[in-house]
Amino acid sequence: MSGRECPRLGDATKPIGDLADFDSLAAVEATVLLEVELNCTIARGTPFISESGKRALTLSEAAKRLGKLIAAASAE
């Protein structure tokens, strides 16, 4: 979608830090794209950063966080 080549990804890949040009702004953009694709609103945060906001998450951790964010948004 972005026109960039996608590198090999694994559960331990950290989008923020491991992927070229995937910074905090790209994380917000990716979160918006996820909202569109999943037809939901993620109320708080982004799935790519820990709840404390201090640590970039792996793809495995991000998937779990995304599930929590969607569940929280559904409960509101």
For the record, the count of structural domains works out to: 1
Rg, rounded, reads: 12 Å
What is the number of E strands? 0
**Gap from first CA to last CA:** 31 Å
Q: Give the uncertain stretches in residue-range form.
A: none
Structural class: mainly alpha
Mean pLDDT score, rounded? 85
Element order: H for helix, E for strand? HHH
Q: Count of helices?
A: 3
Approximate strand percentage: under 5%
Shape: globular
Q: Can you summarize the main beta sheet? A: none
Helical content stands at 40-55%
Notes on the protein architecture:
This protein has 76 residues and is mainly alpha-helical. Helices cover 47% and strands 0% of the residues. The chain has 3 helices and no strands. The radius of gyration is 12 Å and the shape is globular.
Topology:
Layout: H1 15-18, H2 24-38, H3 59-75
Task: Give a brief rundown of this model.
The chain is mainly alpha-helical. The protein has helices at residues 15-18, 24-38, 59-75. The chain has one domain.
Main traits of this protein?
single chain, 76 residues, mainly alpha, 0% strand
